[in-house]
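Q: What would this chain look like folded?
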Amino acid sequence: MTDAQHLLDTYISEQGAAERMIPAVGALYRDSGVIVTVFGRKLMNGSTVDILKAHRLARFVVDDVVTVAETTPVLDALLELRPGSSRIDIGKLAHEARRGGVLQDPARLNEFLKKQLHDVPAGTSVLDEPRDVVLYGFGRIGRILARLLIERTTSNNPLRLRAIVVRGGRDGDLEKRASLLRRDSVHGSFNGSITVDTENNAIIANGNLIKVIYADQPEDIDYTAHGIDNALVVDNTGIFKDEQALRRHLVPPGASKVLLTAPAGDLKNIVYGVNDNMIGEDDVLCAASCTTNAITPVLKVINDRFGIVRGHVETVHSYTNDQNLIDNFHKADRRGRSAPLNMVLTSTGAAKAVAKALPELAGKLTGNAIRVPTPNVSMAVCNLTLEQPTNREALNDHVRDVSYHSALRQQIAFSTSTEVVSTDFVGTPEPGIFDSVATIVDGNSAVLYIWYDNEFGYSTQVLRCMQKMVGLHIVNVPA
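A: My prediction, written as structure tokens:
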């Protein structure tokens, strides 16, 4: 057999094994609330190619290859064990099982997995009943959050999108809202079916009946009149920027908590993975900004290991909806100039906001921003002075290790490609992607480059804050 034929036969075999995984992954999520991953990449609603690509990540995480043939027995065993709601990495489990010599022994593999699943709660959800969610505002972040919530809908899903609140109500408004959810110029088509229910003034997405409520201010709404109670309201408008204003969302009957998807000066600014331990019984919180969520985990990693004396963060940020398409009046400096035609120098509070999640960096960082003519995916350039001198290899190795083997693995992705550009990171679930190829280190001086999908990556962080606010804690296996 030629090498070419052997390679093709191997791929076809792996492809068949990956195809057989899809119904098993679906059954575990649908029936037991188990999110199956391979080296951090979620397989839920994934294609055969997605599964194969996830397995190839093994070469960055462990010292050798983990194949679909090795993860299949782990997946089969999980189907028999039926663990409760959790996030289980079958790639890492297969690697550990192989090292322990139990992968090919079904009985010993079952015992190994039972020990790994020791902390997983019984049942399909750690919540007694589903929790209602209302999206107040339906712009870029609102629609991505809607997609994330709908994608996770099962009979056991504890977070249910029940309504969106928008201004308007003109003829055709409902159809236009549904169309914007169905099609997106950056993130592609919605994965599923969307219909409009004009009688109930609702959008039906993958079986989810989502009421569209028209209101000019929060006090005008009675959520209970729509069958909504004890709801978590997620404010995506950016209009209400302090605690007093955000508490207006708690006036309507049926609302119990509020999460702001923007920074706020007088609230806890949560960067999930860094200071989410601050989420308690608070009924008003904010999820900071996309930039703060992108840079804070990396800065924490660097500060914990090398110490940061001072630094400057320059954000190269995609233009946003608050800029003008063509030159026109704008109350902010420079933002009135055409966004698709110019680089626009502006300000950002992200560097100072880092201190709200990492108080040890208070007063050590400055920041500025340049808006550029791209619709999504931004970059933060962090120019740091370190307490401990190091070199490029040591710094990169440390970030790489943390990104795959620590509690921050869902917050930091690690890139090793010399060819990637901004569009390659559209849809990346981690809020920050560390570009190891671009790292510059000279003794105590380091320049780090962090990509981030300022829409999708940030929305995944918002979703994690939502889950913790309602008491939903998803156990990771292996820990």
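The chain has three domains: 3-116, 131-261, 290-454.
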